[in-house]
């Protein structure tokens, strides 16, 4: 009761550090609950900025992310700007293409690129740099001067290299890991052909080549963003335009006419390959003062298409607990860490697992056979056997429960295999 | 050739950050090779400081550590100040004691407490705080002023919370993890009885109690340092002197008269339980400029008695590579990371494994049976079957090879077990 009284007399202030995807959405969630919200972002307002090509992996929006957007009333707006992908399209070395469906019909992911179109409930103050102390935000203005803002709650949504998280690292008993994978990524653009998409648009195109691979996602402007994933040492072996073409002729011959010889020779050297990091930590909170969400809490490698979705789901989970504990931060924050850490660790592990699977197994007959068996079992026993990918992408089954269930289903499948062979 | 010429004209400067065990020993190694060495240490000179009780786990010096000390000619000096421990002495709940030998006769670890008696070859400059940039050490004087010292190599030996390592964390593609275990530790002193050790001195005493345990190591002054390892939440449950006594009566009744009721009641509350962290990272170097060793590179939990030994062995391994590559830092540093990372990760994992084994299995008949089988097999096939503990503690077998060999031996043992049961 005291809580609500104080809220009617003076609104509590939530400082959201980071105005990216998760920070912006979180601002909407807190504003909807009636908090004063301030968003602190070091970069220029992305709505005014030019698109920076080559530095943003395309994003796949699926069920969890959509549920979060729906909650603050902007699902339809975002969905209308995405392109549905109904299946993966595998490109073999010999130029053949064959689709692998994600799940049942109607279960689609959306390719979204620039979705920073949230109606900000909050005033977004652009600042040069922001860091946090326990009970206030310390903001550096562009002129170098410092402002301290007393916030009731600090929400760190400042990404994989979070400045907020650095404060956690100074405290004892904070568990933390950052793991870089040996692969880097590079983005290349495939322009439209005669004003139309150069390939079938409603697919996530994949060129699996064992130790490396390329994927392509469609954009609204009818381009594709191609992303090449390859060990850094292989990127570094290619030093001239001719070597780029030779490499593409050997491994991705069908893409050369579509991307264009000149563009390939030029764009390959525009930026060095970018690193990918997997970050895990726990707990996500300090006292009743500060909480981490999104990549700041759990950067994942991009191979399950769940980074943004997991970050958006963080917002719902937190909001559900705010409801449950009557907005009492001292109860919500520990519960959020307790419940959310195992789920975020599970999706980080799954993304790492898929890093191997996408490169190697998508090609193999065994993998395809297993997918078919899974889909068949799901058709026969829709409530008992649900493919892992379906649980992760098209439901809100808790990530760690999806993994547990998957392990159990693998045992069932092994049993059926033995039974069938008798 | 150029190298040696430049060394004769002007000696290269090595800045060792941290004047603890590994930093001091490393200074000796570099000085022996003819480098100018400066050691930077934030704390007071430990040789002049009073012993800080309750903050230092006793150390077990074994083969790897001794080899390193031997290399710089101070093995005998240190060994003369240690107390040999020929076996573990297990204390049951019912007050019975039984020894479990470490290995063959003559294979002993030494209990050492304050071995900061290295003859410093280097000048040890005490400074308030030191951090490092890539090619120089930046030192903060007690008055707050800053000195920059241009060093040819910076060696970060500044412990589990290394300031040097923070510079590594700022760079891309540095893998890092810190994991706190749910247990804390607390040190208690067991004084001599009538001028003699209160228990048999030449043993590592262990009171295994499943979720928690106590150990005691002998000191030269005929005291024992008892270390209680217990989950933080259990430490926090005990809030009064009477509760301490009740707890000891239930779990460590034989130690109450030896530590003393009053001392127990007082010392339990002198300091809060201390946290234990396991740190892994890679690589250990930046270019040809900086390298991490000891706890700065690989803090381990203290349950294999290898923390100091692994750190000392780092110094030998580095020195061996200095010999191999003619002191060319650009060759030595990457090779050091390549070779040493898997070994240090292996000992970190083993220490974590022993964290579970020491508490739970030391008690069990199965564990004792397995030890006997191992020792019997080692007796029958001394070159084929070597117990893991022996390889780790009494040889310089590379840690990761010891682990591989152990896995293989476990398979052999399983096979023998099946064979024996036929």
UniProtKB/TrEMBL annotation, chains A, B:
It is a multi-pass membrane protein. GO terms for cellular component: mitochondrial outer membrane. Its main location: mitochondrion. Its cofactor is FAD. Residues 141-315 form the FAD-binding domain. The keyword Mitochondrion applies. Keywords: FAD, Flavoprotein, Membrane, Mitochondrion, Mitochondrion outer membrane, Monooxygenase, NADP, Oxidoreductase, Pyridine nucleotide biosynthesis. One of its GO terms (biological process) is anthranilate metabolic process. It catalyses: L-kynurenine + NADPH + O2 + H(+) = 3-hydroxy-L-kynurenine + NADP(+) + H2O. GO terms for molecular function: FAD binding; kynurenine 3-monooxygenase activity. Its EC number is 1.14.13.9. Pfam families: FAD_binding_3 (PF01494), NAD_binding_8 (PF13450). The keyword Ligase does not apply. It is found in: Mitochondrion outer membrane. InterPro entries: FAD-bd (IPR002938), FAD/NAD-bd_sf (IPR036188), Kynurenine_monooxygenase (IPR027545). Gene3D superfamilies: FAD/NAD(P)-binding domain. It comes from the Eukaryota. It is an enzyme of class 1 (oxidoreductase). Belongs to the aromatic-ring hydroxylase family. KMO subfamily. Catalyzes the hydroxylation of L-kynurenine (L-Kyn) to form 3-hydroxy-L-kynurenine (L-3OHKyn). Required for synthesis of quinolinic acid. PANTHER family: KYNURENINE 3-MONOOXYGENASE (PTHR46028:SF2). This is Kynurenine 3-monooxygenase. It comes from Anabas testudineus (Climbing perch). The lineage of its organism: Eukaryota, Metazoa, Chordata, Craniata, Vertebrata. The gene is KMO.
């Amino acid at each position: 009761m005291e809580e609500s009284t104080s809220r009617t007399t003076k609104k509590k202030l939530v400082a959201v550090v980071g105005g990216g995807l998760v920070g912006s959405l979180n601002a909407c969630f807190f504003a909807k609950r009636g908090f004063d919200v301030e968003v602190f972002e070091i970069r220029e307002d992305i709505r005014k900025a030019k698109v920076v090509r080559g530095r943003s992996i395309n994003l796949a929006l699926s069920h969890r992310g959509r549920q979060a957007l729906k909650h603050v009333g902007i699902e339809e707006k975002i969905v209308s700007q995405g392109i549905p992908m109904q299946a993966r399209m595998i490109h073999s070395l010999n130029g053949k293409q064959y689709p692998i469906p994600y799940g049942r019909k109607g279960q689609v992911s959306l390719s979204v690129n620039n979705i920073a179109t949230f109606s900000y409930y909050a005033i977004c103050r652009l600042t040069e740099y922001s860091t946090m102390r326990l009970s206030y935000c310390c903001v550096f203005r562009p002129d170098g001067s410092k402002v301290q803002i007393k916030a009731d709650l600090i929400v760190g949504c400042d990404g994989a290299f979070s400045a907020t998280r650095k404060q956690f690292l100074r405290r004892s008993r904070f568990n933390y890991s950052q793991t870089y994978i040996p692969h880097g990524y590079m983005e290349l653009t495939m322009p439209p052909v005669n004003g139309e998409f150069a390939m079938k648009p409603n697919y996530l195109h994949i060129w699996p080549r064992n130790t490396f691979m390329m994927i392509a996602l469609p954009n609204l402007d009818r381009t594709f963003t191609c992303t090449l994933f390859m060990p850094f040492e292989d990127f570094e072996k290619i030093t001239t335009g001719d070597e780029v073409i030779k490499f593409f002729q050997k491994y991705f011959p069908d893409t050369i006419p579509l991307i264009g010889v000149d563009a390939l020779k030029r764009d390959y050297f525009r930026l060095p390959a970018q690193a990918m990091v997997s970050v895990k930590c726990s707990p996500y909170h300090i006292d009743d003062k500060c909480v981490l969400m999104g990549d700041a809490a759990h950067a994942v490698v991009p191979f399950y298409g769940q980074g943004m979705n997991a970050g958006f789901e963080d917002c719902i989970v937190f909001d559900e607990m705010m409801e449950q504990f009557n907005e009492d931060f001292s109860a919500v924050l520990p519960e959020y860490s307790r419940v959310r850490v195992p789920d975020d660790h599970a999706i980080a592990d799954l993304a790492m697992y898929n890093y191997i699977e996408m490169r190697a197994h998508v090609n193999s007959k065994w993998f395809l056979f297993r997918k078919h068996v899974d889909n068949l079992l799901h058709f026969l026993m829709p409530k008992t056997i649900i493919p892992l990918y379906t649980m992760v992408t098209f439901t809100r089954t808790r990530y760690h429960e999806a993994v547990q269930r998957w392990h159990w289903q693998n045992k069932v499948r092994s049993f059926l295999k033995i039974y069938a062979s008798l």
